[in-house]
Design brief:
Length: 71
C-alpha cells in the first residue's frame, strides 16, 4: 500500500524506537533542514521499506525543507 509521507509528521507517527529516524524527522521539523545523508539514507530508505510512494516522498520533502518552499 502506498501511503503519504505526511503520515509520519504527526507526533505519534515518528515517536519510534528507530532513533536515527526519530532524530532526523525531529530535526527536520525543527530546522527545516537535513544533511543529504539524513534525507536520502534515513528518510529515503525508510520510505522505500515502508512502501511509501516516491510522489508522496517528494511532496513531503518539498513541504518540510526550507529550500523546497516558495518564498
Amino acid at each position: 500500500m502506498k501511503r503519504p509521507m505526511s503520515s509520519i509528521t504527526n507526533k505519534k507517527a515518528y515517536d519510534t524506537d528507530l532513533r536515527c529516524l526519530r532524530e532526523c524527522i525531529t530535526s527536520t521539523l525543527r530546522f527545516a533542514y537535513a544533511h543529504h545523508i539524513q534525507r536520502l539514507m534515513i528518510t529515503g530508505n525508510f520510505a522505500l521499506l515502508a512502501g511509501i510512494s516516491p510522489v508522496y516522498v517528494e511532496e513531503w520533502y518539498l513541504s518540510v525543507y526550507a529550500e523546497g518552499r516558495i518564498a
